[in-house]
Amino acid sequence: MNDSTQEKILEVASRLFAEQGLEGTSIREIAREAQVNLAAINYHFKSKENLYMKVFARNYKWMEDGVSRIAQDKTLDTREFCWQLYEFFVGNSDAMMNSFKILLNKNVDFSETQKFCSGDGESFGPPGAIHILEVIRRDVGEKVSFEQCHWAMRMVFAVLVHFGVMMGTSFMKANCNKMPFMSPEQKKMDIYQLVESIIDNLKKNSK
Question: What pTM, to 2 d.p., does this model score?
């Protein structure tokens, strides 16, 4: 099975698992929609549960790679970095929704998935956590503790994910143009103000 075929299987599986859950999706259905041989999926992925974990790892890496690409621009301050991260989430809202639906399946054991995730030990965090921490530390300086920066990273990531997922819903797509406070200009101002308040709080508490 070549890389493009494997990616097609993972893409189809991601959509079906998100729509129907692990229990409601069969390997046969994935094979049919991906137009591949059923035996090939069983051979390369071993089981439906293992395929689910591979989908989780793929989606996590996709998000981490997106954060990493934005972080390549070392001139960005935390405000602009977070705005571009929000735009990435909104621009890929369907993939975001699928990723979180898969993550929120309460019948799946995710205890072995930390190896896929960003960092380890104290630095463990969401996709791209290391890059977000780097940008924050660049803004606040070395006097601010790692623990405080890690708190700031978790807060901004949680808000950006919330905004990104909400903007991807059918309701928001249909109605956001009727709400002045949901315009792109206002959202950018909101994110800038949120980040500024967090960064200012870190600097104030470090004195």
Answer: 0.81
Question: Mean per-residue pLDDT for 172-196?
Answer: 83
Q: Cβ(202)–Cβ(140) under 8 Å?
A: yes
Tokens of 47: 């089981």
> Regarding the domain delimited by 59-206, which CATH topology (the fold level of the hierarchy) does it fall under?
Tetracycline Repressor; domain 2 (1.10.357)
Q: Token pair of 10, please? A: 């993972």
**50 pairs with which residues across the strands?**
none
Please, which residues bridge with residue 118 across strands? 125
Going by C-alpha positions, the residue among 160, 151, 115, 120 that lies closest to residue 133 is 151
Centroid of chain to Cα 52: 17
Question: What is the tens place of the pLDDT at every residue in 24-49?
Answer: 999 999 999 999 999 889 888 888 98
**For residue 103, what are its two tokens?**
């993550």
Maximum Cα–Cα distance for the chain, whole Å?
63
Fold of 1-46: Arc Repressor Mutant, subunit A (1.10.10)
What does pLDDT average to over the chain?
A: 85
